[in-house]
């Protein structure tokens, strides 16, 4: 059974294993050294402390992927803008888990008053992530060429954005 739920402390080893694969074998993240389970637990706690969601998608209680959001920038003016991150196990790709997981993340962000979500996608050849975000209504916001060096080559950053709720059509409630 497929389930999307808030992550727990017990999910951290599986979350770490998923992420470490991307650190070591892909350009989806520009991180180059694999973080420890303890580091990933700390990062998750920082997200939760900010009142933001950190979700997992499971099949029969096995974590197939995770997604979370963080504030886009730390300054107060950005308090309605978030950046999303999503990673799936390699054997979970192409099965619809990403769409389910990111859709739920976006709904939770909108309920928290977020009006703009940014995707900062590692590598302009990361067609899976670009396609996922496009399928969920993200539009291109820019390209930063040669922003990172990993796997002996320069990598671009693809920027995408999606408006949530009323977006900028109304001022925020004070």
Query: How is the main sheet built?
Result: 7 strands, mixed
Neighbour order of strands in the largest sheet: 1-2-3-4-5-7-6
Number of helices: 4
Radius of gyration from the CA trace? 16 Å
Structure description:
The radius of gyration is 16 Å and the shape is globular. The protein has helices spanning 12-25, 37-49, 97-111, 127-135, and strands at 2-6, 54-59, 62-71, 81-88, 116-122, 139-150, 153-163. It is α+β, with helices and mostly antiparallel strands. The chain has a single domain, classed as Aminopeptidase. The longest helix is centred in the middle third of the chain and has 15 residues, at 97-111. A seven-stranded mixed β-sheet has the order 1-2-3-4-5-7-6, with helices on both faces. The mean pLDDT is 96.
């Amino acid at each position: 059974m497929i389930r999307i739920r808030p992550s727990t402390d017990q999910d951290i080893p599986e979350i770490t294993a998923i992420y470490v694969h991307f650190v070591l074998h892909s350009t989806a993240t520009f991180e180059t050294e694999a973080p420890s389970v303890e580091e990933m637990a700390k990062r998750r706690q920082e997200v939760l402390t900010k009142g933001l969601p950190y979700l997992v998608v499971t099949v029969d209680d096995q974590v197939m992927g995770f997604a979370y959001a963080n504030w886009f920038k730390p300054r107060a003016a950005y308090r309605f803008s978030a950046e999303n991150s999503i990673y799936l196990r390699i054997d979970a790709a192409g099965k619809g888990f990403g769409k389910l997981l990111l859709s739920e993340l976006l709904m939770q962000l909108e309920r928290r008053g977020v009006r703009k979500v940014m995707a900062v996608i590692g590598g302009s050849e990361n067609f899976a992530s670009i396609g996922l975000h496009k399928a969920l209504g993200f539009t291109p916001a820019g390209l930063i060429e040669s922003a990172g060096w990993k796997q002996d080559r320069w990598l671009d950053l693809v920027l995408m954005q999606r408006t949530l709720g009323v977006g900028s059509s109304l001022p925020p409630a004070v």
